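A.,

Following up on our hallway conversation. Structure tokens first:
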């Protein structure tokens, strides 16, 4: 039995964490948590009181929230070389948390039909949807990867956000986003992760 336990559902953002786990190349145990009573009650709510996946448990400690899990994995398994080196740290943390905060908020609000009036944009972290999209598009268009010439854990999260946005139509198609998504999604670890999660999907009758 491994020390690292991954709680997920193949129809969740757990797919983001699976990609990171495959990039790390470390052994882990997968526990699928079904939506509904199993996810919203004990014993799973002892792991995550929010009753949602994904979550990681290791040596009596639990980490939730995709960006936090990814950062934790990068630091816990340095042999994978996914954590930032000194000259990458500024861009690494900047864009990891931009994608987890302002960008995700902008996408979700747009998807829910929430419009922020111009005189109220100072109350939200992203200003406007168009500004958030332009900012992340420029960021991924500067270098092959978000911190420069080397793939890091930040690319797992940023790439996943962009991929979901393009897939579900919550981000506009543009060359910068499409090219970046193609770079991350064709990585062998990502392909392995997709195969593993697809195999866990409910079988259609």
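Then the amino acids I'd put at each of the 205 positions:
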């Amino acid at each position: 039995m491994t020390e690292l336990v991954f709680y997920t559902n193949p129809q969740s953002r757990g797919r983001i964490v699976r990609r990171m786990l495959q990039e790390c190349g470390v052994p882990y145990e997968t526990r699928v948590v079904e939506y509904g009573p199993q996810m919203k009650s004990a014993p799973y709510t002892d792991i995550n009181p929010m009753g949602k996946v994904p979550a990681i448990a290791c040596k009596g400690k639990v980490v939730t929230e995709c960006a936090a899990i990814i950062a934790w994995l990068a630091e816990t398994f340095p042999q994978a070389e996914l954590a930032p080196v000194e000259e990458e740290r500024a861009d690494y943390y900047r864009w990891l948390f931009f994608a987890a905060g302002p960008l995700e908020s902008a996408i979700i609000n747009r998807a829910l039909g929430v419009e922020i009036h111009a005189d109220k944009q100072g109350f939200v972290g992203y200003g406007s949807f168009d500004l958030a999209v332009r900012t992340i598009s420029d960021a991924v268009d500067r270098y092959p990867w978000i911190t420069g010439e080397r793939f890091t854990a930040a690319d797992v999260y940023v790439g996943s956000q962009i991929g979901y946005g393009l897939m579900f139509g919550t981000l506009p198609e543009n060359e910068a986003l499409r090219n970046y998504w193609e770079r991350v999604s064709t990585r062998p670890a990502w392909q392995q992760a997709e195969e593993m999660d697809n195999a866990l999907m409910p079988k259609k009758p």
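Strands lie at 4-8, 29-32, 55-58, 61-64. Curious whether your intuition agrees with the design.

B.
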